[in-house]
């Protein structure tokens, strides 16, 4: 097999040691010879710190992989086989504003759900579409593996507006299956589940443990508080037991933003007073992580990285890249155009579901009609996502207003107008499409 050149945009991210660790552990099947970490000038200091740690990790592992650090995107992309994205346009300062502005109006302030996801997409989509234009010229056969949030919305923009081969990923489903494994005291590999929905809005309706259907049993465990899924970046507020039994689906933690919207907003407002938004908390975690990364004796991924909330991205990303590279025909949960998986959404709509991954990409498995209990929610949020993509590409304020006003967590058009006004003002330096 030929050696591989892999490029990561946002190479100075605190998450990068996760990816390095994943590539090191899979080097026997994924022989990455050149790994390029790319960042912008404003992120160069972090790139140098993270890159030095990556180089130490590779050296300790004793594998044949050269880690390059650069701000020259063209040089990095030339001849690449895979490009991964973990960028944050505007850095954490922009995320903090995304969270605080909706809270002014009593609306959820969260990075990817609701208005926060809308605003992050407006900054991110134009940047990644520009990346795709460069990929068409410099590495036309490369795969773009996107885990920049909001992953589903961004992946839909790429699928609709670029010919570049792309797949969106998220570690949420992987995390959910690990929680099932923990509930039954088995290894993660002993768990299989069927998922449907959108990024950060997925449900599992079939759960198998060691080949046996445990769906009803696990739902009852959830109702009793056993095996409850909760990501580190989401408040640990549980759903009522009778609702879990009625739903008879295993929801990702993010669904609490919809089913417990009032409680979650109240929790966020309380946190805002006492410990700041999640973005402000993440900023503090990031500072402590980079203090660790600066230690020249550190040669492995630090355990403290799990507090950042992205601990499973390396497993998810690297296993999917390996499945493409080695034509494994494995089943993974990815963000991919519907392509008939369910008749309840357009074929071009990006969904998050089980798909067979081979050398030609992701092929979603047929699911059928969406469960009645969640069909309306999924369709409503998908309409929001479609409008969000259109607004990001066109810079049309009316489309942007329609997007925000259509989200289930935005209570009125007047509130949508106020949030949009504040967002466009605070982000004017990152939104060239709205200046047209």
TrEMBL record:
The entry's keywords: Glycosidase, Hydrolase, Manganese, Metal-binding, NAD
Cofactors (names): NAD(+)
Coiled-coil region list: none
CC cofactor note: Binds 1 NAD(+) per subunit.
PROSITE patterns to which the protein is assigned, alphabetical: GLYCOSYL_HYDROL_F4
Alphabetized SUPFAM superfamilies for the sequence: LDH C-terminal domain-like, NAD(P)-binding Rossmann-fold domains
Highest taxon in the source lineage: Bacteria
Segments forming domain Glycosyl hydrolase family 4 C-terminal: 195-410
UniProt key word Nucleotidyltransferase: no
Family listed: Belongs to the glycosyl hydrolase 4 family.
Protein name: 6-phospho-beta-glucosidase
Native source species: Enterobacter huaxiensis
């Amino acid at each position: 097999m030929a050696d591989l050149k892999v490029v990561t945009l946002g190479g100075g991210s605190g998450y990068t040691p996760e990816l390095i660790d994943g590539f090191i552990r899979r080097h026997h099947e994924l022989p990455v010879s050149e790994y390029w970490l790319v960042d912008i000038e404003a992120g160069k200091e972090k790139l140098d710190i993270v890159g030095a740690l990556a180089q130490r990790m590779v050296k300790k592992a004793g594998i044949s992989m050269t880690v390059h650090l650069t701000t020259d995107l063209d040089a990095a992309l030339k001849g690449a086989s895979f490009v991964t994205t973990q960028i944050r346009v505007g850095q954490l300062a922009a995320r903090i504003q995304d969270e605080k502005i909706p809270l002014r109006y009593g609306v959820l302030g969260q990075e990817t759900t609701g208005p926060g996801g809308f605003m992050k997409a407006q900054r991110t989509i134009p940047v990644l579409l520009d990346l795709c234009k460069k990929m068409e010229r410099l590495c036309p056969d490369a795969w773009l593996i996107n885990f920049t949030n909001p992953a589903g919305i961004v992946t839909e923009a790429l699928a609709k507006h670029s010919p570049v081969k792309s797949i969106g990923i998220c570690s949420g489903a992987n995390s959910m299956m690990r929680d099932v494994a923990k509930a039954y005291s088995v290894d993660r590999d002993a768990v299989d589940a069927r998922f449907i929905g959108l990024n950060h809005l997925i449900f599992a309706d079939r759960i198998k443990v060691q080949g046996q259907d445990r769906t009803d049993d696990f739902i009852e465990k959830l109702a009793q508080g056993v095996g409850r899924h909760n990501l580190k970046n989401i408040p640990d507020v549980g759903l009522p037991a009778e609702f879990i039994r009625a739903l008879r689906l295993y929801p990702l933690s993010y669904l609490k933003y919809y089913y417990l919207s009032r409680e979650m907003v109240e929790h966020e407002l309380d946190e805002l007073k006492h410990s700041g938004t999640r973005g402000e908390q993440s900023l503090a975690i990031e500072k402590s992580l980079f203090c660790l990364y600066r230690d020249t004796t550190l040669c492995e991924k630090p355990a403290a990285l799990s507090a950042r909330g992205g601990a499973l991205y390396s497993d998810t990303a690297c296993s999917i890249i390996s499945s493409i590279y080695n034509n494994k025909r494995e089943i993974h949960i990815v963000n991919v155009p519907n392509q008939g998986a369910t008749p309840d959404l357009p074929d071009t709509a990006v969904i998050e579901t089980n798909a067979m991954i081979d050398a030609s990409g992701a092929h979603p498995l047929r699911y059928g009609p969406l469960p009645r209990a969640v069909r309306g929610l999924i369709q409503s949020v998908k309409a929001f996502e479609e409008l969000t993509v259109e607004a990001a590409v066109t810079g049309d304020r009316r489309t942007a207003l329609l997007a925000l006003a259509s989200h289930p967590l935005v209570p009125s058009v007047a509130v949508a107008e106020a949030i949009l006004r504040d967002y466009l003002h605070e982000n004017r330096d990152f939104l060239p499409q709205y200046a047209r």
